[in-house]
Automatic annotation (TrEMBL):
This is GNAT superfamily N-acetyltransferase. Residues 131-260 form the N-acetyltransferase domain. Gene3D superfamilies: 3.40.630.30, 3.40.630.80. Signal peptide: none annotated. Pfam families: Acetyltransf_1, Acetyltransf_19.
Length: 260
């Protein structure tokens, strides 16, 4: 087998096969780690066997082997870990091959995040007196920065891309919503929200999620999202807004194996 560094464009056909084999999608958090990884193509002579991705020289973010070569998957997986001195692995539970390869090795498994999909339960967004939910403009930038602080790293860029929404009651910014189109999963977009501290526990987060779901539905987009596994408040808000989860993101410690 030959293993060589490659670009994402060179393995586009393999990535599409990988995505089609997932039982459920992943959100922008994992996607960002994947897209900022270095990709490696595995070949048998000139035949493409599969690929994997390494983030920041230490974390495996993807590992895919075509079905016809999966009898070699365990060996190739261990070779990839050794070759790059991998310390950790991100594994969505929707990736049956990778989660199986990890379980084979008895690595230490930690729960990283929940991944959510639309429940498809209809919820009609309702705005109260003086309330408005809309795309943000540069005129909103200063107030968004004041209210949301370092929630995002570049609010101006989000506004320019048309992916940031604002939720006002009169002149008060109740919170913001986000819709980030996936670069790997066609027709899907990650949604998210931030609530003004002064308006927490008043249904603002739920209202934003419901609005974002409607915005996606009206445009034929399927919303997905995620939250840190131990953030119960975010999980409850997403579920109350019509999102459901059956998928987890696992963080695998390769340097520490459990003992049976």
């Amino acid at each position: 087998m030959i293993i060589k560094a490659c670009t994402l464009v060179e393995i586009d056909h393999l990535v599409k096969e990988y995505v089609e084999g997932l039982s459920s999608p992943f959100d922008s958090f994992l996607e960002e780690h994947i897209l900022s990884s270095v990709f490696y193509l595995i070949q048998d002579d000139e035949k493409d066997v599969g690929y994997y991705a390494i983030h920041n020289n230490e974390r495996l973010t993807q590992f895919y082997i075509r079905r016809s070569y999966q009898m070699h998957a365990q060996k190739l997986f261990l070779q990839a870990l050794e070759r790059h001195s991998v310390k950790s692995i991100f594994v969505p539970t929707s990736d049956e091959l990778l989660i199986s390869l990890v379980i084979d090795q008895d690595f230490t498994i930690s729960k990283q995040a929940y991944f959510f999909q639309d429940s498809l339960v209809g919820m009609s967004p309702v705005l109260g007196d003086g309330e408005a939910f809309r795309l943000a403009t540069q005129d909103d930038l200063e107030q968004v920065q004041q209210v949301c602080g370092d929630f995002l790293d570049n609010y101006e860029r989000w506004i320019e891309k048309g992916e940031l929404f604002v939720y006002y009651r009169d002149a008060d910014l109740l919170g913001i919503g986000l819709i980030e189109s996936s670069k790997l999963l066609e027709g899907l977009a990650s949604i998210g929200m931030f609530t003004n501290d002064a308006y927490r526990k008043q249904g603002v987060g739920r209202a934003i999620i419901v609005q974002l779901r409607k915005w996606c539905k009206d445009r034929g987009i399927s919303p997905i999202c995620g939250c840190w596994y131990y953030n119960e408040a975010s999980k409850r808000t997403l579920e109350s807004g019509g999102m459901v989860t059956k998928t987890r993101l696992l963080n695998i410690d390769v340097t520490n194996q459990t003992t049976n």
